[in-house]
């Protein structure tokens, strides 16, 4: 159930990004409002007294602050990629990043590796490339691959860091506070950016952006919270859960883009999506 809720909420994120463009809302303002919303939900769902001194001295605190900076950067890139390259391409680039935690496990935790696992990693990279290609005559290496590649790399680092911190320092009871700290860090950095743009007279605040931010923040918090809850399950390995989560998001996002957003996919895009699913299955079954 936790895994299913994580898949649904993660897919909802890219759908909201698509709707934001149609509503002509300011993406940066929406993202900042989203993180304040997600932070508030985390604090409200934390059932224990919050002591600032113990929070600051928590072993995961600095890691959560760093993740917050990475979160808002990658989230903004995800928004741009969704609006420029489409829902399915963005989902593939983001979720193929599962190969990065796998590589981390091989190098740091000395997990087993074989030809099947390495083949899955290579296929994932090919999948991101093929899924990002537009129709003939419209493809530009820099404009079409830059955003998906940055999303691929950043999402992988985030997944690896979350799993490491959750396993090493964060207990199940601390998940809401850990999540809220990440979101607060992202919101603070976003506010600094908005303040700079406001001082430069490059920003016009609007309540419409707050509305979309609340919707996005609710989905964003749910995606992280339920993924962490799923990873806490002692009956399944994290690699299996990450894989099921990522495959589910890729497939559901692709169907959503086709059915509701009328996105066009070339045969190369379909091949990329197919390779994405195969690569994730290869990596998981190898373990």
Q: How are helices and strands ordered from N to C?
A: HHHHHHHHHHHH
Mean of residue pLDDT? 80
Helix content: over 70%
Q: What's the gyration radius in Å? A: 19 Å
Low-confidence stretches: none
Model description:
The chain is mainly α and 287 residues long. It has one domain (2-286). It is 79% helix and 0% strand. The two termini are 23 Å apart.
Main attributes of the structure:
287 residues, mainly alpha, 12 helices, 79% helix, globular
Short description:
By secondary structure, this protein is mostly helical. The protein has helices at residues 2-22, 27-45, 52-56, 61-85, 87-95, 99-108, 115-132, 141-168, 175-199, 207-231, 238-259, 267-286.
List strands and helices in order, with pairings.
Layout: H1 2-22, H2 27-45, H3 52-56, H4 61-85, H5 87-95, H6 99-108, H7 115-132, H8 141-168, H9 175-199, H10 207-231, H11 238-259, H12 267-286
Helix pairs in contact: 1-4, 1-10, 1-11, 2-4, 2-9, 2-10, 4-5, 4-8, 4-9, 5-7, 5-8, 5-11, 6-8, 7-12, 9-10, 11-12
């Amino acid at each position: 159930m936790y895994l299913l809720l994580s898949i649904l909420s993660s897919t909802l994120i890219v759908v909201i990004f698509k709707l934001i463009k149609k509503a002509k809302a300011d993406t940066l303002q929406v993202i900042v409002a989203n993180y304040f919303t997600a932070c508030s939900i985390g604090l409200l769902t934390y059932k224990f007294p919050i002591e600032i001194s113990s929070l600051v001295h928590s072993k995961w605190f600095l890691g959560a602050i760093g993740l917050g900076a990475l979160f808002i950067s990658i989230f903004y890139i995800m928004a741009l990629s969704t609006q420029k390259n489409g829902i399915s391409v963005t989902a593939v680039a983001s979720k193929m990043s599962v190969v990065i935690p796998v590589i981390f496990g091989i190098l740091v935790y000395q997990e087993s590796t074989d030809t099947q696992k390495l083949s899955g990693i290579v296929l994932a990279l090919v999948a991101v490339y093929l899924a990002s290609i537009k129709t003939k005559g419209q493809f530009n290496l820099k404009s079409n691959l830059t955003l998906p590649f940055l999303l691929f790399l950043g999402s992988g680092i985030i997944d690896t860091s979350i799993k490491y911190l959750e396993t090493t320092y964060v207990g199940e009871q601390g998940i809401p506070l850990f999540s809220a700290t990440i979101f607060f860090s992202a919101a603070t950095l976003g506010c600094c950016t908005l303040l700079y743009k406001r001082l430069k007279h490059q920003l016009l605040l609007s309540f419409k952006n707050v509305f979309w931010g609340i919707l996005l923040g609710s989905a964003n918090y749910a995606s992280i919270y339920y993924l962490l809850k799923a990873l806490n399950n002692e009956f399944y390995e994290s690699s299996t859960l990450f894989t099921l989560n990522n495959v589910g998001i890729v497939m559901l996002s692709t169907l959503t883009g086709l059915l509701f957003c009328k996105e066009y996919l070339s045969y190369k895009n379909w091949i990329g999506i197919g390779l994405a699913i195969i690569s994730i299955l290869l990596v998981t079954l190898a373990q």
